[in-house]
Amino acid sequence: MAYKKALAAAAGMILATAAHAQAAGSNIVSLGWFRVMPNSSSDPLLVKSIGGMPVNQSQSGTGAKVKDADTVGLAFTHFFTDNVAVELVGGIPPRHKVEGAGSLSSYGEIGSVKQWSPAIVAKWYFLDADSKFRPYVGAGLNYTWFSDEKITSSAFQTKLGGPGSTSSVSADSSLNPVLNVGATYAVTKDWFVGLSVSYLPLKTTATIDTKTATGVHVVSEAKIKINPVVTFLNVGYRF
């Protein structure tokens, strides 16, 4: 009888520690793989000025598209109630290749850029706090900025400003909404695996300042819609 009582007590302790894995007050740190998949398109390249004189000449048929990228993601989630949580998410900025489109497609990769996109997302988790599988929906805000923008094609550089020309590139930053769905699965009371899918209606204006071999500045710009779908496959730890 004592043996059975000991087994029952042990089972009760195990169940107690397994419960409330994602309850009010829980904190979870997650590390994983971001796959950033732009649904990109762009307006034609617009030559804004030559030698400081406005021209505003559109280069008909030109375009650009942003390619997929992978990177490491990190997230911190705090549960305010058993169902409501807020997540801070970021990671190592992915480097996107930019390819020419339309009449620029023959150049292949024309540039590259790093994208920084930290976000804060409020989430509603379904089911009980002690459920192993918990789907959720979320919405929040993202701030995106870009760095290390550059032209990578010498042929495209020559098209922009002729032989011996150089260019500097910049892209506008922006504040954007984030829509998010996903789910977590509790492997133990403290360890989780998760998968989420997010969408960002993101656009930017890329400005190219080209200096010809004779010192004349040619300023061009392209409005680019990126609109990425982002997947995050991760492992999380509760503390």
From TrEMBL:
**Transmembrane stretches, start-end:** none
Please state where this protein is localized. Answer: Cell outer membrane
Name the predominant localization. Answer: membrane
Alphabetic keyword roster: Signal
Which Gene3D superfamilies does the record match to this protein? 2.40.160.20
Q: A Pfam family this protein belongs to?
A: OmpW
UniProt cross-references to InterPro entries, sorted A to Z: OMP/PagP_B-barrel (IPR011250), OMPW (IPR005618)
The signal peptide here is: 1-21
Name of protein: Outer membrane beta-barrel protein
